[in-house]
Task: structure prediction
Amino acid sequence: MSFFVEVIIPLSLPKTFTYKVSETEYNFITKGMRIAVPFGKNKIYTALAIDLHQNAPTLYEAKEIHQILDDKPIVNEWQINHWFWIASYYMCNIGDVYRGALPSALLLESETIISQQKDTVVNETELSDDEFLIYEALQHQSSLKVQNIMDILNKKTVLPVIQKLIHKKIITLEEEIQEVYKPKLIRYIRLHQQYQSEESLIALLDNLKSDKRKNLVLQYFQLQAKERKPISVRQLTETAQTSAAIIKALIEKGIFEEYYIQEDRVNFDKNKTENQLTLSEAQQKAHDEIEHVFTEKEVCLLHGVTSSGKTEIYTKLIEQYIAVGKQVLYLLPEIALTTQLVSRLTQHFGNKVAVFHSKYSNNERVEVWNHVLQQSEKAQIVIGARSALFLPFSNLGLIIVDEEHEPTFKQQDPAPRYHARDAAIVLAHAHQSKVLLGSATPSIETYYNATSGKFGLVTLKERFGKVQMPEIELVDLKDSYFRKRMKGHFSLTLIEQITEAFANNEQVILFQNRRGFSPVLECMTCGHVPQCPQCDVSLTYHKYKNQLRCHYCGYNMAKPSNCHACSSVDLETKGFGTEQIELELAELFPNKNIKRMDQDTTRGKYSFEKIIDGFKNREIDVLVGTQMLAKGLDFDNVSLVGIMNADNMLYHPDFRAFERSYQMMTQVAGRSGRSEKRGKVVIQTYNPLHNIIQQVTHNDYQGMYKEQLYERKIYYYPPFYRLIKLTLKHRDFDKLKEGSMWLYQVLQQNLSIPVLGPEEPAISRIRNEYIRTIMIKIPSETPLQGTKKTIQKVLNSFEMVSQYRAIKVTVNVDFY
Ligand code: ADP
Ligand code: ZN
Ligand code: ZN
Result:
């Protein structure tokens, strides 16, 4: 009798594969264990066992496995089922899902490149012979392929020993860049507890002989009264013009005491002790309603205005789930937001909070994976970006999807192109757990589900602490330019408001939905605009580097001094981005500390956190940024938000442009006035009467929703239609044109629903590949499975046409 194991291989292949095993192996292996298998010519991959059987494959001779890599499963059945669901729903290969789901350190293969981990001290005597040989080889070569190690050790079964060395932190996968961020510790100073009362203070001042010391105490008081936040030693030294020696003397006398706060942990508000969380009446009510919804429904939307304290409600709910031993998954749209949230949640839950996302090192990710697998307390609450959905949960109680409207929950490239919110709902259903979606600006789809009874709906209309919603002022740019009430891109109104905020020691956020200095360089003589040679887009001018850059492929060149078309030197910059705002602002307010936050300034692992920390600590006065600013950041001293140009968001050729504009503006506006004082928002626009602008101004989500829903209905968009977008790419323009037409026609013949295209997208060439798209619109009442099957069949026959074989087709289900 023969024995076989069925495995998934981490390659973009649609099928599972059958390998031969011995009877002993057959009895040992369980589903969810990893197995090293040979595949293709001399390659070895880490496959996943999903079944054991005795049916020999009919199409090929089953090869033998190399080695079993685990003694217990590291993937559970819920995961395997969920991954197959993702592959089927999002029309991709199971190998794609498996590859995307596992941390790459768990997926070693013959091509993986490893190198020595720099900062580890190695005790050579503790290494096994094989470990030592690998270690020694890495002293002579900076990196090795797993394949090389097979040669060095002269055997094929090397993955476990490599895994051990990774675990011992002696080696690491090569693609990792190690970057360590040590939050700065800041030295603060305060009066000793015993001088809190007025009498004791007066007595103290009477007792102090030295004028210098007396003066210092008084200065401290003034500073404290003015700033109402912790006073750093540096700040006191500067303001009081005093020496460190005097401060030291007062500390020694027990009049002052010093203390240190990690830069990102500063809590300015003494009255907020986050570990004893009491919900406001409105929060409590919302919380109770959510609990009630969960007795009837699996999914609940919490629609709470910005700064209504949604995080606190989540926290209270999490408390209940972990009290009964359940695991909780907290999904965030943007890994950059995790630091703020992690410090808020660890204050409350201590070390039960684990973080999982792609900027974490492989070791860290494997660690979290194992903690979740073992149901360890250390990962009872997992905060993560969308990929945290793939962790081996087996006791999941609650999934929170915060800022559920954010498009970054949809993975674009590579496959699986899944939507983490939707995939989370499916996962929760299998675990019989609950899902809480939270947003101040829910997506149209979610709000539709919440009002049609599919999900529960809980609304929270007031901000925490009864802070009022910010006051929004519109500035008509046409009128302002006409009446010369502009300086550069700043209206006088905005300048006045900024000045006032500074006068009150408050901070400002300016939002510009474009990075770079100025999108394009235009020739004033012939109108030529430099284009990317590889893509169908204009190059963007970046003043800081004096370069023209392509935002699609990274192509760049020095700024030309004359026009490449007509040689004229009369070149001008058109439009404006964050960099230009930053420069103009520096001219208007030369003494202020201005920082920019966009993709260009936040590339490093922790650069985002550094900016956020600096702003939170009030070292930065103004933050100029792109949509990164619109994602759930909580600052307590921002009294003004300026939206530099509302119009460029509105006119994107995309059916979600209006919804997105509403969300973006409302979210950025929501950063203003989050504690005590009412905040202010200035929106500069050429279209003050545009419906979306009006709806933002009046905080009219309902109005926006009704109008957009109507448009979605009459133009055949979600939630009434499901979209499947096919993207075809090829370097040969004519072949692509022909092929996409063929595919379009065959689809149309086989489907009785709208098929649109083939269309040349707005950017029709990227990295020298031409692009065409076909959009399929599936009415919600049409059976989805059958339609997808038909589409897949057509795609399969497309692949069989030899002259089109080189055309790459990607499928994007529920296109975002
Ligand atoms: P949202 O996520 O709804 O925009 P947050 O959860 O960030 O709002 O809350 C806004 C601010 O109010 C935060 O600074 C938070 O610490 C504070 N806050 C909210 N609820 C409470 C509460 N119950 N007790 C103390 N502070 C709270
Ligand atoms: Zn020219
Ligand atoms: Zn390009």
Remarks:
- The longest strand covers residues 43-53.
- Residues 523, 525-526, 528, 563, 565-566, 568 surround zinc ion (ligand 2) (CB under 6 Å).
- The longest helix spans residues 733-750.
- Confidence is low (pLDDT under 50) at residues 176-183, 263-274.
